Amino acid sequence: MSEKNEANETTVLVLALTITLGLVGGVFWWLAKNGAINNITNNPSSQVVSKGDTFAKVPKVPSGLFSYGGSTTWAPIRREVDPLIQTAQPQFRLRYTDPTTGAPGTTSGIKMLLNNQLAFSESSRSIKPEEYQQAQQLNITLKEIPVAIDGIAIAVNPNLNIPGLTLAQLKGIYTGKITNWQQVGGPELVIIPYSRHLEDGGTIQFFEENVLEKEKFAANVQFIPTTTQALQELAKNPGGIYYASAPEIVGQCTVKPLPLGRKSDQLVPPYKEPFIPLEQCPIQRNQINAVTFQSGEYPITRRLFVIVKQNGQSDQQAGVAYVNFLQTDQGQELITKAGFVTIR
């Protein structure tokens, strides 16, 4: 065979290979664009839908009535998200379920999940080692899937004149080492710390572990059943202080959120600056400082999780579907609207 014929055959083979690769690439692009190929994250239980999808386009949504429960921090997200899920995929019916005894919260939600009272649960903290152990004893595998970022905000009476607190000062207040606002640059005024009970939810447990560093609450801490009641007390008490999920604090009209910092010269507000005076509320409300929550500059942030049972049954399908709803663009926009920070 002549060199000229060999060159022609080589050219033909190269062209054929190029065309084939182009066709394969085009088919792959079309499939990906139309949702036939799903992106899989490092979380094998979560089938993350492609960016730009809406609730109506989430695949593999099971049919049935699914009970779920858990964290009270999640309430603003549930209010925004759940009605639109029901509209987009009416076969997927959701029912928030309170515990039969005790207060609703992360801990009770995980307990109910292990007792087969829930299909999936919502959590404002990571699963504890003892909860993993309990699940293992029941032959249940749990997986936590993050869907949003939250911060813990500190609220005081609007008339209290103080620039902010460091984490060390906050710890000192709740462990009883600091009992007067004068000790942290404020007026001569006794501090009245408020908190929900430790067993009431993930926020309190997170605060105890990460702010108090597992020291006990001081004897002067007044325990209040709900955030609503605590904020009502705070509005009446000039010396009061309370902590809760940032969306429950920042937009309020009757209490003032405080800047926090790791050091006194690094105070970061949980709200967007400039601060909107409370006299303008509710016409104008302060908004979450999302940028500093995402960057970690704000010193007390955490992730919110959906807790899913890895049992290959409808409960797992329901939990994964709920995660997928929240991870769509529509879901992330609603998380922002609820006052939380997106993870994407």
Automatic annotation (TrEMBL):
SUPFAM superfamilies attached to this UniProt entry: Periplasmic binding protein-like II
Pfam annotation, one family: PBP_like_2
CDD domains found in the cross-reference section: PBP2_phosphate (cd13566)
Swiss-Prot/TrEMBL keywords: Membrane, Signal, Transmembrane, Transmembrane helix
TM spans (from-to): 12-32
UniProt superkingdom: Bacteria
InterPro entries xref list: PBP_domain, Phosphate_ABC_transporter
Signal peptide: none
Domain PBP: 68-329
PANTHER family for the chain: PERIPLASMIC PHOSPHATE BINDING COMPONENT OF PHOSPHATE ABC TRANSPORTER (PTHR30570), PHOSPHATE-BINDING PROTEIN PSTS (PTHR30570:SF1)
Annotated protein name in UniProt: PstS family phosphate ABC transporter substrate-binding protein
